């Protein structure tokens, strides 16, 4: 039942009525709030929403999709392709934080993003408040919304940005309130915890983040906060004054900042400035006419932000640059093309810019490494600033803007009350002007004095003389322009084995979408078959793809050279990797020996020690497992997996009370860790992926019965846009039962797996791989296991093997449309068998004749098979309602109509049908519109708003070169590349 507050919110979200009205704090919290404290509570709000359709039933193997400059692979996440045309009111779960100065709203169902950041003193939304939830197809898996603050990891845009997170509210002893949000990334299953914190009497929004690699493999990641701010002609992005240059994605291009000194994103800013003063100032939103990114190249400062000169307000971001160097602006551009994209993302709230903060990264793509079991913790700070202007220096305590001329004027803004604060203007170290004032957040404080003869400085001190903020002119060494990235040469043009290895490592680390590291590594081994680093890189690659025997062979080859003269090498990663592969092969005693040796190296001691203790625990060697865990305590950092393992072992030793106390203490530091919560008996969401993570943790610790119970929950978990784990849960249970000698029960679980609803069941990872292999070892006629294993192998680069499994499933009699479509893609991409590919699509369409996606993909195949335009058109006319249900299919259709002399019909469709553009498909609808006008002999005219996009004034960087080869630095591609004969990893 809707509450009164939610109903008020619902009424206020009608576009005619203005912004969302937020509910008042509950009566029980009002005394704390009135006394200046901070409060948090959970209460839904109603927001007008354009719902995302159900995801496609087909896995998207976007092997070479370019997305944000890195890989756009989306598997195993289901891909959403359409957004509702009409909005409706929807109740969204919301968590609210409030104190005297600020009001925040977090939406747990949308990745735990901050949706509202409101300055109560100045009646100003310092974060862009989008009063509708209106996704566009911009996200990695489809839907993405603008506004507020989106927390992106382990890549951009966050895979789980449109998926729910777990939350809890913590009240600190210091009066602070923190809303914790946690999720497991859908790819590697690493976990992330971010806490949004408010303190009493403070305007600072503090974000506390812990990233945990809960896997046994080294992983790559980046972390960016996307902070949106409402933009108009007066909005300015400000960076520290020592920023001289900014760079495009991957540092493929460079320009001076704040005044561009060369063409950038196709815009000749110096030429524009010849006619319009300040037109080259790219810190001003009004001057950027095209979609544009720029990231600072370097700065020694810790702050940046944005300021709206018209509204007289803005915000500051502050974080220690030692871990948070990334500072970036993104805009769709202040021009019709960008405004059309803005309209796709909101109804009435206008354009915005994004001011992004990167941690362990300063560019996109720019990935860092995180070791197995490693946790990385950091904080970020934002706060609103009143009418002081763009900040020239800032700390978490205060910001200052300085005007310099005949006089110096400094305007300060504080983040907490500062009675008796001292404002000072200095000439070198001599104070030339000073005043004392009681400062409060939201009200600027000003000091003015004559321009100093020496070096000017301004500062603000609290009443005890503690420095709150200090500005001095930045000294910038003129060391010339920073470096710009270059495309690496092909393997045959690289001279050294080391350079071949490092080039491959770069491509792997940065998840390059169109260039594989394998060619470089294989070339390195052709020149030196025993090279340690390259053999280990390929062993790691084989291991992650489920090729365990080759991984063991390559690792042993590396170890032969590594230990030929030194039995105790500098880096013991080879031993650790050998242990992982041997463990997967069931050779646990050998694996434990390898882990023991890997533990001699401090870099790998934590990972190897945990793996060793886990293996011992699984074999029932409980006291041995505890001794290993004891050796890690106090030596290596926090790892929730280690706590959970210790608790499980302690319980088996009859020390249940000690185990429970251990778990409860750990939950104080990591309140949403899924396995710890399970062990504590706390409620864990019925989300399939989360339950599988817990079950695998329990299984690997030897808690068989408990693991089977959780797998039972996973096998009954709801099927959602996050995917479907039901079949894999059954197969995992069957494999575990077989290990226990319970063959009859295992067979029953395999039968259950075959009977499960397989919608959005896209298996991923080595545990699923091993369970499906075990299922086929037990029953080669299991067509469902063949189909699922084929998906997993195809996604892991083992495309030829995947094709064989799909063919076998078809041969066993399955006519499931997802299987047939997958087999068709493999027949074309892997085997080059065009007739079989077409035949599979025909069978799939016969099985699902009303499936628009199948018809669209068959037509894409028809293009590659050189079917004539008229043949294609007649085929599409027969299913026109299905064609018109998809934007991409409709564009293909009207293009054919125009080409075949039916431009009037094409024009009618383009004039009356509503389109929603997709990132990577920009310009296709306008091109179809222009072609229809040209064919009709009509003058070129702007497309209608219903077309969803406007004509671009400038040509963006081309994704493909003139020779048809994808540019190495491409950041997007028009096609999804389902049909691509680029070799896999075999």
Automatic annotation (TrEMBL):
InterPro entries: DUF5107 (IPR033396), GH-type_carb-bd (IPR014718), TPR-like_helical_dom_sf (IPR011990)
Domain DUF5107: 74-384
Region named Disordered: 1-21
Composition-biased stretches (Polar residues): 1-12
Pfam families the record matches: DUF5107 (PF17128)
Name assigned to this protein: DUF5107 domain-containing protein
Species the sequence originates in: Agromyces lapidis
UniProt lineage: Bacteria, Bacillati, Actinomycetota, Actinomycetes, Micrococcales
